[in-house]
Amino acid sequence: MSYIVDRRANSRNKSAVNRQRFLKRYRGHIQRAVQDAIKERSITDMERGEAVTIPAADVSEPVFAHGGGGRRGIVHPGNREFVAGDRIARPPGGAGGAGGQASNSGEGEDDFVFQLTQEEFLDVLFEDLELPNLVKRHLIGSDSYKRVHAGYTSDGVPAKLSVLRSLRVAKARRIALTGGARKRIEELEDDLVLAEGGSDEVTSMRIKKELRGLKERVARVPFLDKYDLRYNLHVKQPQPTSKAVMFCIMDVSGSMDQQIKDMAKRFFLLLYLFLKRNYDRTELVFIRHHTVAKEVDEQEFFYSRETGGTVVSSALKLMAEIMAARYSPNEWNIYGAQASDGDNWNDDSPVCSEVLKKSILPAVQYFSYVEITKRDPQALWLEYEKLAGADPDRFAQRRIAEVSDIYPVFRQLFARKVAAT
Amino acid sequence: MTAVEKRQPISDCSDWTFELIEAYDREIGRIAADFGLDTYPNQIEVIRSDQMLDAYASVGMPLNYNHWSFGKHFVEAERGYSKGYMALAYEIVINSNPCIAYLMEENTMTMQALVIAHACYGHNSFFKGNYLFRTWTDAGSIIDYLAFAKQYIAQCEERYGADAVEQVLDSCHALMNYGVDRYKRPYPISAEEERRRQRERAEYIQRNLNDLWRTIPQTRAETEVDEEVFPKEPQENLLYFVEKNAPLLESWQREMVRIVRKVAQYFYPQRQTQVMNEGWATFWHYTLLNRLYDEGLVTDGFMMEFLASHTAVLSQPSFDAPYYSGINPYALGFAMFSDIRRMCEAPTDEDREWFPDVAGRDWREVVQHAMRDFKDESFILQFLSPKVMRDLRLFAVIDDDEDSEYEVTAIHDSMGYRRLREQLASQYNLGDREPNIQVVRADIRGDRSLTLRHNQHNRRPLGDSADEVMRHLHRLWGFPVRLESVSNDEVTQTRTCP
């Protein structure tokens, strides 16, 4: 006797919980692997998993087992030339030899390797980071609705018929409409028994007639009437969406070579990935500048070549204009990230500071500036330093000298702030 | 060969359907019943390969409590599978009633039929028939028990935190192999069970009474008289001892120790019957599918595919092959059961001399008897024939650390058969395979320390992970724990924690 069951439609990921437990337990190893990974791989392919290697000793589950040594006999298959009493030189590698224990120790030496998914990779990447001033500005937008159950209604399409409710109403109606009649029937039936017992023909005839009438009335009440039908009611509920826009501002003047641009790009991408995880929708605005600023697409932003001098304030002014035109601070969470090698016309730096203070900082959640240079701090840095002192919650600046600095700097900028500071 | 013209195969293409699975199962079941196989009802579940990975991770059980180690097995299997290092086993079968067997949807019809014959009739009848399974496991209630365990542990996690629960489970898992009764037989339930519970209650009261007594001043002389060894006899079931006697465990922790212990006990027969269980299932899928072929119910192509995977499963690399990893239990078990059949049907003089009780008898009776009343160790000791030893070309080697060379002590010749057989049997004796460790003393009057004794067999020491296990034992016991390794009545090594 066999039952055949199709379980293929059953839920996936039955092991997800255990997998998470495992990852949690080896968080230290995984964090190290992730940090090594971002040092080595280009940040453009951050969005994939990573192989994590854990020394076998760290994941082994200890049990009481025989160690090497002592005297033990083993039976092996495949004898060709041995006869009883033969002596065989011990193979190098000691007592492990071949046989039962060998497979254990053989595997034991290998490292434990497994693959992190992209999601888990990013989780670890951005662990303990948070977006500063994370005020989710909600927009009752037009693009996302959720259908929620909102009780029952007396009309609707057949597909939404609620059988249970309908039958319940029907039963209530039947009870209400026939209650009096059924009570009377019960009384009459008792009377009938009495009347027939007393051989009272006339009364019993009368009672029988009334009974017939009543029973007909009860039978006429339908089991299910169209008034009984109830339908599930669903209403559309608008879902608040949180939206963020990220302004990437980069200097593309002659002094910025491709290497510096690459480093800037990595920084921007990290920030973008991070925002994407925190907001339902994230838009990007790319502004590049030399002496004049221009809004461009991503390709042009990172790869087109320009030369010329540097006027940083042009980009900040453009950002302020775009914000005013398209991204109302009431609706959008605005983040700004500026990357530069620090060059600027000396008399432009105070203007930058002014634009930032007046028209940008009040509207944004956070504005970060990274200076990618190995030289001493430049004019812009010094000017911005004053700003950072005045508004440390919304503005931060850091310096990056090497590619490997990017992630630590990123972590510093977005480190979860402890309340005491 | 005359049967060929009236061949009416059940199917002749490699795709399976539910109707075909049903048809094959019906035919295989009919033949199995003809051969006298007694089975639990089957529950055949068709699953995807990722579900098979899930099943792997939770040691084959359809449900289990949550623990990181299952996650570890999962990521390991997942990686192995996705990189192609490891093919998934064709089947997982669970000793439950009804007997649950998984079929993977990727398999061909031939493989599905093979798994049905192997798992649903081979393993299934073994679970139902073998004495170890009959005494130690309750196939009817294991799924319910695991459901209870999962729920209970989830509740504990909510109440006491996942970390606290994980710690207890880690420690229990370290001692899991020592959570079984090896020598003691389980009590038959019912009235006996009732009495046992009563005894336990009495014991509980007694313990509390002792505590009361302790507060009353005693004269020194009396205490010395009282100074007796506890436990009275060495205890082999460490987890049971911890569950009942650990001074500091909370009741939920005790219950978790009990859960791990119960699961360990459930798997204990499987660890002792690897060769027999796989050999039996392989022997029967071979016999059943060949009968299907003889009846003309399957095609030649079916048989070719079946035999290809059958021989792959049975491959036994010799000791010097690079991928040799010990004796393949499928190969050994299949060879032995097939040889029993051969000895019954066509005995030689050698068989009559070695196996007078087997030679010439009805093979069905003999294999049933072998399956029912033996475990790997005794099965090999009883039924390993000279022919199988010759076919596998077995030889025994002694590896002694006081000797600079290995010594070949026996090979497959008339001088060596008996010795070889004893050696191989002891290799499957769990008592030999796992270090013999018992609780010998719990100092209930003094510092409450716990002492274990490791009786070294042939001077073999403990592996390095023993220190780690001692830390786990210390976590459960709560007071100092000590492990003495004893060889020839001499303590060779003492481990303590802390």
List keywords for this structure.
heterodimer, A: 421 residues, alpha/beta, Rossmann fold, seven-stranded mixed β-sheet, two-stranded antiparallel ribbon, flat, B: 498 residues, four-stranded mixed β-sheet, 9 strands
Describe the overall structure.
The complex is a heterodimer of chains A (421) and B (498). Chain A is an alpha/beta fold and 421 residues long. Chain A has 3 domains: 14-58 and 112-125, no CATH class; 158-234; 244-413, 3-Layer(aba) Sandwich (Rossmann fold), CATH 3.40.50. Helices cover 42% and strands 21% of the residues of chain A. Chain A is built from 13 helices and 14 strands. A 4-stranded mixed beta sheet of chain B has the order 6-7-8-9. A 3-stranded mixed beta sheet of chain B has the order 1-3-2. Chain B has a two-stranded antiparallel ribbon with strand order 4-5. Chain B starts with 17 loop residues before the first helix and ends with a strand. Chain B is 55% helix and 11% strand. The radius of gyration of chain B is 26 Å and the shape is globular.
